Each structure stands twice: as structure tokens, then as C-alpha cells.
Amino acid sequence: MKSPSAVRRRTAAAVGRVRDRIALDRISDPALHRYLSHWRNWLAALAAVSMISVCWPVLGEVTRLPAFLLPAFAILGCGGIALVFAGEEAVRYGWASTVITSAVASLVPNDGPWPMPIPLFLALLAMTVAALWTQPLKRLPVVLAAVAGAFVVGLPFDALVGWIFGLVVVGMAVAFLRYRARSQREIAEQTEETEVLRAREAVLAERSRIARDLHDIVAHRMSMVVVMAQTAPYRLAAAADAEEVGPGAKAEFDAIADAARESLDEVRQLLGVLRPHGDAADTAALAPVQGLGDVPELIEGVQAVGVDVELTDTSDHSSVAQTVGAAVYRIVQEAVTNATRHAPGAAIAVRIEEDPVHEGRLDVEIVNGLATQPLGATVGGGHGILGMTERAHAVGGSLTAAARPGGGFAVRASLPIGPSVRAVA
């Protein structure tokens, strides 16, 4: 016995072959072209033609309608079946036509078992199901009331109560399923939007922290330039081999100090708005920025709480730019924190060394093994990897974070040793 899916595929293929023989490109009406472009509409049209061909002679046999009205009643009553897959508006018009036609036909004297001819009753059931599934939820009571009215006109009393009860039950079930599906879809959309907003907020927050670090670093360096330029004449005069600074040289020193001071003001205007407000925030903002030399202290603090961390640092700290050192510190800090949170009890190895292949690059690697202790209840996904990636990109580097084939996790970053243009941009 063939499966329903195989039957659907063969039916769709057969309809597709028939459809391909018709030159759809020659159809100018976009609505008709769109209708004929889908194989389900072809099946619906075939079903409608079949029902019309059955309804027409049946109406002539059981009703006393004039012969010239038979095709009109058959088409108006059963033609809506061709629109069951054509969209909400098309189904609404087809359903209304079927309800009105079946109700009017029920008022015509006939010799059938029911006032409503059986073909029209079947078409009414089909269009009612289509209307319940496609019309807005707020209109479903109207659909049920109209169909119930057609039942009252077209069904005998002994069958009326059962069919109306079944109609209400089916209507409530369809409404519940559609409401549940819509709620799940809305929840999924809201969840996706929330994740996007959280990721965007994480990026903005990390960029704000990076900008504050750059502000502190640039402010420190430029302040030193100002001080050195202003005190240079006095230091030269007070040296063991005193040197007299002429008016021209002193003017140059003053110009250097003024230019550095103006640059410092401009940097503060551009980046100072990113600082948090409040006394506590201002105090934290004035704290020195951690760098490469602070990594050992960071590791010692983690080791003090019982975490097995090993640091291997062979880099020349004096040659590493301060912005890069700050990025290394933050990457190591976040990676070690993630390892202790997501792999409790695992050994962590931190390696910082100059790239032996690419000159002027610094390799940073944080690797942890499998967890040896149960995970805590607070473990969950965050934006740590995103923040580390932003840190690496800010100084012109790159970062990868992925699970290891043998178990555990590895974070690897390649950063320029000297300052990068991207770090200032």
C-alpha cells in the first residue's frame, strides 16, 4: 500500500505536468496567474468541477427548480471549493456563496430526504472547514452562526441538534488549535526579537567598555605628553649639563603642549559620553585599565578559589601596546570565567606567546578540559564569546571559540603586538 506522502507527490507531479503544458506566461491577470501557479489550486478546481457535475443533475432530480437555474445553483453552491487554497478573502466569498445558495435551495420544494440537497450539504461542510481554518479568529462566531442558520433551514429536526452540536465542537477545536499555534508563533517571534536585542545590547555594552578603556589609555598618554612638553625647558635647564632653551624652542614646546591638550579635549568629547554617570561609576571609570602585566594577578586570584589554572606567558610585555594588553586581559578573564562556570573542576591552561610564524602577532590561547564536577543551576548562555570577539576585533585581531574534538573548550585569539588603526577608529 502506497503511503499518503507518495500519493501526494505523484498527484503533484501529474498536476505539474498538466500545468506545464499551459503557457502561464501568457496570462496577463496576476491573480489568475498566481492561482494557476500552485498545484493545490488545480486539485481544488478539479474537485469543484467534479462536485458541480454531480450537483447539477441531482438538483434536477430532487428539486423543482427551473432547468435554467440548475447550473447557476450548482456553480454558486459548489464552485467555492475551487477557492479553498486561494487565501482568506477568496475563501470568504466562496463560503458566503455556498451558505446562501444551500439555504435558498433548502426553501425550494424537493423530493429528497432533507430539505437541503445532499451535494450542497457536502459543499457547505467543505467550505465551512475552509472558513474555520482561514478566517480571522474574531470572525469564527459569525461563521458558526451562519452555518447553523443554514442547518436550521436545510436539515430535519431529528438531525439538526446533532449537526449543530458537532459544528460547535469542531469550531471550538479549530479555534483552540489556531489560537495555540498563533500564540506559539508570537512567542517564537518575540523570543527571536529579544535575543537579537540582547545581542545588540551586548555588542553596544562591550563597545562602550572598549571605548572607555581607550579613553583612559589615550588620556593617560596625552596627559604625559602635555606634562613633558611643559616641563621640558625646566628639566633641560636643571640638568647636570644645563642647556638654555631659546624662545623658539620654548614656543615649540608650548605648541606641542597646546596640540596635545586640544587632542585630549577632543577625545574626551567623543568618548567621554560613554562613561556611566554617578559618583560610584565615576570612581570606577577613573581606575587604571588592566593590561598584560595584570594577567598573573588575575590567574592567582582564580587559583586562590581552588581552580586548576596554569599560565604560560613568554611574551615581551614592553613591546605589546597597552590597548592590546587590555584586550588580552579581558579575553583571558572572560574565557577563564566561562571555563569555571561551564566546566567546573576542569584544568585550564592559559598560553600567551608571540606568533612564531607571523611576526608582530600575539597568540592567546585558553583551553579547558571536561568538567569533573556537576554543573550549577545558574549555568546558561550569555554573550561572553561575543564580547571577546568584539575585544579582539577592536584592536585589529581575530578570535575563535569552539569545542575541542576530545572534549572541553578552546578560545584562541591572534592579536597585533603594536597598536592597530582599527583600535582607534
From TrEMBL:
Matching CDD domains: HATPase_UhpB-NarQ-NarX-like
Keywords: ATP-binding, Kinase, Membrane, Nucleotide-binding, Phosphoprotein, Transferase, Transmembrane, Transmembrane helix, Two-component regulatory system
Transmembrane segments: 42-59, 65-86, 93-110, 116-133, 140-157, 163-181
Molecular function via GO: ATP binding; phosphorelay sensor kinase activity; protein dimerization activity
UniProt enzyme class: transferase
Organism: Gordonia sihwensis NBRC 108236
Domain called Signal transduction histidine kinase subgroup 3 dimerisation and phosphoacceptor: residue spans: 206-278
Enzyme Commission number: 2.7.13.3
Entry's Gene Ontology cellular component terms: membrane
SUPFAM superfamilies: ATPase domain of HSP90 chaperone/DNA topoisomerase II/histidine kinase (SSF55874)
InterPro entries in the record: HATPase_C_sf, HATPase_dom, Sensor_HK_TwoCompSys, Sig_transdc_His_kin_sub3_dim/P
UniProt KW Transmembrane helix keyword: yes
PANTHER family: NITRATE/NITRITE SENSOR PROTEIN NARX-RELATED, NITRATE_NITRITE SENSOR PROTEIN NARQ
Name of the protein this chain belongs to: histidine kinase
Catalytic reaction annotation: ATP + protein L-histidine = ADP + protein N-phospho-L-histidine
